[in-house]
Amino acid sequence: MTKFTLFSEETSGFFKELIMGTMKDREMRKIIRPDMIHLLMEAKKGGLIAVWTDDDIIAQAVLFFVAGFETVSSAMTFLLHELALNPEVQDKLVEEIKENKERNNGKFDYNSIQNMVYLDMVVSELLRLWPPGVSMDRICVQDYNLGKPNDKAKRDFT
User: Fold this and answer.
1) pLDDT tens-digit series, residues 58-112
2) How far apart are CA 79 and CA 76, in angstroms?
3) Total tally of structural domains belonging to the chain
4) Which of 43, 87, 88, 118 could bond 96 through an S-S bridge, CB–CB 3.0 to 4.6 Å?
5) 126, part of any domain
6) Whole-model pTM?
7) How far apart are CA 158 and CA 144, in angstroms?
8) From the record, what ranges are coiled-coil (predicted)?
9) Is the same domain home to 17 and 61?
């Protein structure tokens, strides 16, 4: 094991407090959300086969945050590039955004954005042209038993 750190002590402390505080709050208030923090909480309890330490959970949450930030910022950069090259697409998208704003009294929420068909098409095409994950940088170094994939399976999936 190396003593290499990616973040300063202050930044590491911030993430530790943020993640552990969120988990503690959810446990206290019995909040269940279908997200990564919930999965990590289940893993810590042993509900997902492996038992993880607090440091394991914090590391996974930070990795998820950093990886998500990079892919989203790259996708937004390519989206702006493609919209600049295709003004007719930009105009049609702006029109849909204006219509959505009018329909929802100026409010944008998850449901209203889900109903934006052209936006979905633009983002799908962007991800086809500029996929964020063109290569994987992780290698499994040990076997992991995921259990039986279904009731008819004769053996575990390793």
Assistant:
1) 888 888 887 777 788 889 999 999 999 999 999 999 999 999 999 999 988 888 9
2) 5
3) 2
4) 118
5) yes
6) 0.51
7) 5
8) none
9) yes
